DNA sequence: CACGTGCTAGCACGACTGTGCCAGCAAAGG
DNA sequence: CCTTTGCTGGCACAGTCGTGCTAGCACGTG
């Protein structure tokens, strides 16, 4: 992951490699969103990022590495955005604050979702992408699990927690899909209302004698 | 659509155009499933279908037409399979019999789902695909609507019907997504159980004075 | 200053792409 | 029989693809 600091001895290193990689990954995202995964080539990405192909290939020697890093960075960005969510004191509001990040409600998360779909579509060709997809999926499932456990006041490994987690995860991902295929500027309250309703339903079935702490970070 | 019978006068017409088109579309599906949308080219499809490029292009002059027809046929196949579903007398069982076709539980519906994802990923490049995607989506939404209306015994335009339809649609599509990203031979009962549970929940809230007829065809 | 290295810019190659075009074939109509 | 027509098989072209390779530039370090 890091392996950068051990290079200190004597090197020019003018540019910030990580910033460059991020810039290229973002160019990949833009092309996926605007022109589809089929339009992603080393040349189109280099042009979109404003660098020449040689520079791109200095950082990503092969196209596969470029795509894999782009997918990984997308997952990382989403993860850190969720972890940085300020949690309201109210349990239901805290749950919603977390879950709303799993749906394409803003332009940024819309792009992430679109990249995720492209990742699905290309995973037969680039098997590494399947692993990244699974990792992203598992992280979302874990988040849903913690939210559900906190809402219904039962442990993570409780049978009902597991079932409700799967249901909530499916609901959120299904809504995400439907939000993605509607115009970006269309109304989204119908989806957020459904999530809020499900949160309320889960709270309503809360075990009376349960630990009050959410502990969903 | 048809415009075939008006050709009677005098033509050889040795092959069945529609069968040929279907064979090519199925080749497209296989390549999407096995190698990803990026591997779909006129040459790869022709080889997969066992014809030469010239023959493919005699039926589909351009690659876009090939992809659009493949997507349309996928939607049509799914639609006719659902319409051909025998409906059990029991309301809940009938609902499940319909809804199970919306999830990739068998190899065939798995392929359809995979094609649908590829369709999503490529729709920025081929705008016609976006229309097909919307049409498929609307058909599924309609089916969910009829199922929900029958289950809760309220009219289609009832407010609660609309809300529950959206929820059921999201649940089913989310489960479909999760079933797709798990191995084809993995257990699927967890997903079908969730659908059955939701059907039971909807029936439980059924209005007491409602028309008993499902009328979901 | 000169040296070494990170980086850029670009050429070159072979493979592959979609599509235009045409020669040849088999079969149905006259 | 011959002609017409649907279809096959394939060549060709221009463009794009990923990637190997190299010459030159800019800059941190000695």
Identify the notable features of this structure and list them briefly.
homodimer; 217 residues; mainly alpha; Arc Repressor Mutant, subunit A; Tetracycline Repressor, domain 2; 2 domains; 66% helix; elongated; disordered N terminus; DNA-binding
What does this molecule look like?
Two copies of one chain form a homodimer. Chain A folds into two domains: 14-61, Arc Repressor Mutant, subunit A (Orthogonal Bundle), CATH 1.10.10; 67-217, Tetracycline Repressor, domain 2 (Orthogonal Bundle). The radius of gyration of chain A is 20 Å and the shape is elongated. Mean pLDDT of chain A is 91; it is low at 1-12. Chain A is an all-alpha fold and 217 residues long. Chain A has helices spanning 17-35, 42-49, 53-59, 63-83, 91-99, 107-122, 127-152, 159-180, 189-204. Chains A and B meet through helix 1, helix 6, helix 7, helix 8 and helix 9 of A and helix 1, helix 6, helix 7, helix 8 and helix 9 of B. Chain B binds a DNA duplex (30 and 30 nucleotides) through residues 9-15, 41-43, 51-55, 57-58, 61-63.
CATH domain class name of the largest domain in chain A: Mainly Alpha
**CATH architecture group name of the largest domain in chain A:** Orthogonal Bundle
Task: Please give the number of β-strands of chain A.
Answer: 0
- The amount of helix of chain A comes to 55-70%
**Full CATH superfamily name of the largest domain in chain A:** Tetracycline Repressor, domain 2
Helix and strand string of chain A, N-terminal first? HHHHHHHHH
Low-confidence stretches of chain A: 1-12
Whole-number count of domains of chain A? 2
What is the beta-strand fraction of chain A?
A: under 5%
Name the average pLDDT of chain A. Answer: 91
Q: Supply Rg of chain A.
A: 20 Å
Q: How many angstroms does the end-to-end distance of chain A come to?
A: 23 Å
What is the multimeric organization of the chains shown? homodimer
The coarse overall form of chain A would be elongated
Structural class of chain A: mainly alpha
Q: Kindly report the CATH topology of the largest domain in chain A.
A: Tetracycline Repressor, domain 2
Most extensive interface: A-B, 40 and 41 residues
Largest sheet of chain A: none
Total helices of chain A: the number is 9
């Amino acid at each position: 992951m890091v392996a950068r600091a051990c290079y200190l001895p004597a090197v020019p290193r003018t540019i910030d490699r990580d910033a460059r990689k991020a810039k290229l990954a973002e160019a990949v995202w833009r092309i996926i969103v605007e022109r589809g995964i089929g339009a992603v080539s080393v040349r189109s990405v280099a042009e979109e990022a404003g660098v020449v192909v040689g520079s791109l290939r200095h950082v990503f020697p092969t196209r596969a590495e470029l795509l894999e890093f782009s997918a990984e960075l997308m997952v990382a960005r989403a993860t850190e955005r969720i972890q940085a969510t300020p949690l309201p004191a109210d349990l239901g509001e805290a749950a919603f604050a977390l879950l709303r990040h799993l749906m394409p409600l803003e332009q940024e998360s819309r792009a992430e979702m679109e990249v995720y779909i492209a990742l699905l579509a290309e995973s037969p060709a680039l098997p590494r992408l399947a692993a990244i997809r699974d990792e992203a999926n598992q992280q979302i499932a874990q988040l849903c699990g913690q939210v559900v456990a906190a809402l219904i006041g039962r442990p993570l490994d409780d049978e009902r927690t597991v079932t409700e987690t799967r249901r909530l995860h499916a609901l959120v991902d299904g809504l995400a899909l439907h939000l993605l295929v509607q115009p970006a500027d269309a109304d989204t309250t119908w989806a957020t209302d459904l999530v809020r309703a499900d949160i309320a339903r889960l709270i309503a079935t809360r075990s009376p004698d349960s630990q009050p702490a959410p502990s969903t970070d």
